[in-house]
Amino acid sequence: KFYGGLESDVTLRQVIESCNWQEDHTGEASQSLLKQVQALKLGDSTIRKEVEKLKQGSGGDAGDEVSIWHDMRFIPILDPGTGVPAVLAMEIDITELEMHKLAQEQLIAAANQQAQIFAAVSHELRTPLNGIIGLTEHLLDELEESGSPGGSSEALAASSNRESRKVLST
């Protein structure tokens, strides 16, 4: 039994079954953890598990549940009062940390998606700009070959060519 300032004593099974084992609808994960904790002996490593629990919302409705996350640790110890081997169970609310992790994952996904969009847009702009540069160079060559005084049209074509190259270099 576990004692922890609750209204009644709680068993190890009740602690583990209070978790929401989303990936496992058969109950195998909770049973596996229960067996691992029951098999703990002095000197064994601490068992650590992050679990989601469903907490009743403030409305009291069945569908008004809120997910909370707990870091559960099971540590083999000697009971200081009796000297009998026991398991110290600790639960720490890590909901805020999990929310930060989720927000970080969402930000990274959004940044990756944005980079993909910019890469696609960049490709879509570069192809026609390369065509424009080629045509402008062709027009400049024709103006030089014909010997006609290009004047402002030649300056416009050269300026267009320079500006297009600036866009492509970024």
Compact description:
With 170 residues, the protein is of the alpha+beta class. It starts with 11 loop residues before the first helix and ends with a helix. The chain has a 3-stranded antiparallel sheet, with helices on both faces.
Pick out its properties.
three-stranded antiparallel beta sheet, disordered N terminus, 170 residues, alpha+beta, 19% strand, HisK_dim/P_dom
Please, could you describe this protein's structure?
By secondary structure, the chain is α+β, with helices and mostly antiparallel strands. The chain folds into 2 domains: 82 residues, no CATH class; 65 residues. 51% of the residues lie in helices and 19% in strands. The chain has 4 helices and 3 strands; from the N terminus they run H-H-E-E-E-H-H. Strand 1 and strand 2 form a beta hairpin. Helix 3 runs antiparallel to helix 4. The radius of gyration is 34 Å and the shape is rod-shaped. The chain starts with 11 loop residues before the first helix and ends with a helix. The N terminus is likely disordered.
Low-pLDDT windows of residues: 1-8
Specify the structural class.
Answer: alpha+beta
Note the overall shape: rod-shaped
- What's the β-strand tally? 3
Give the neighbour order of strands across the main sheet: 1-2-3
Note the total helix count: 4
Order of helices and strands: HHEEEHH
Q: Please state the average pLDDT score.
A: 77
Terminal-residue CA separation: 67 Å
Gyration radius, rounded:
34 Å
Fraction of residues in helix: 40-55%
| β-strand amount | 15-25%
For the sheet with most strands, the description reads: 3 strands, antiparallel
